[in-house]
Amino acid sequence: MATKTGSAGPSTGSTKERLSREAVARAAMELADTEGIEALTVRRLATTLGVTPMALYWHFKDKDALLDGVVEALMADVRAPAHDGSAPWDERLRAELAALLEGLAAHPAVASLVKTRMLISDPGRDVAERVLALLREGGFSAERTSQLATYALLTMTSIVADMPGLSIGASEEEREQQVRRKWAALQALSPKRYPHIIESAATLTDCVASDQWLDFGLDTIMAGFRGQAPSA
After folding, report:
1. What is the 8-class DSSP label of residue 82?
2. Worst-scoring range by mean pLDDT, 4-18, 20-34, 166-180?
3. 229 phi and psi angles, rounded to 5 deg
4. Distance in angstroms (rounded) separating the CA atoms of residues 174 and 170
């Protein structure tokens, strides 16, 4: 992390050199992971890094550009899985989507940003290109391929960002209190009118087995792909 050494103007090149664009983006992602996306501002991030806001503007002209950088950093961590090129297209596609889902799950506070920013950086475009290529290999038309890839991205970002019981920036005690309040509200409903909501209240308000939640979501997406594939 860079420390504040004075004015962030051109005369303080040492600060600018130490505080790389990637370092700023990753610090922003860490801040969002810890305190929530609402807490992420240029001024708040500058305070965390021990520099003036102007030092960050060397790399990102505004908050929107900073969020672009955060998504780029997240997507850079999504590595192409190693797999046998002779494996069926759907197996390779699942591996690609699993890698993407793992990357999103590591940063749930910013996962929703990926929906509209994935294609603005090379790392995001690389992931999209691999997914699109595999769908085309599965026999889908170019138009249907783009639709299915979009459905998958929207679904996976929602699976992560909207996971039941997720509470960014809250302590475990605060999170449990929020879950209990939501559970109690559902339990108070009329059992005659809403028997199935009451029956499912625990799962609707908290996701205990998060890995299972993610895997089942991905399997559901893949089932849809396989069922729609021309080869099916």
Report:
1. P
2. 4-18
3. -60, 135
4. 6
The number of CA neighbours under 13 Å toward the Cβ of 105 is 18
Question: Cα 132 to chain center, whole Å?
Answer: 19
| Residue 8 to residue 46: CA distance in whole angstroms | 11
pTM value? 0.86
Identify the three-state secondary structure at position 13.
helix
What average pLDDT does range 8-33 have in this prediction?
A: 73
Q: Does 162 have pLDDT greater than 80? A: yes
Place of tokens 């790399």: 59
Closest to 20 in 3D by CA, of 60, 79, 65: 60
Q: Residue 52 phi/psi, 5° resolution?
A: -85, 155
**Which tens digit of pLDDT belongs to each residue from 57-84?**
999 999 999 999 999 999 999 999 887 7
Calpha distance 55→71 (Å, rounded): 20
Sign of the torsion angle spanned by Cα atoms 196, 197, 202, 206: positive
46 CB-near residues (< 8 Å, 6+ apart): 52, 53, 55, 56
Is 66:113 a contact under the CB 8 Å cutoff?
A: no
Q: What share of the chain is helix, strand, coil (3-state, %, to 5)?
A: 70, 0, 30
Amino acid identity of residue 47, one-letter, is T
Answer yes or no: is pLDDT of 16 > 50. no
Residues 109-121 as b/e (b if ≥16 CB within 10 A, e otherwise) read: bbbbbbeebbeeb
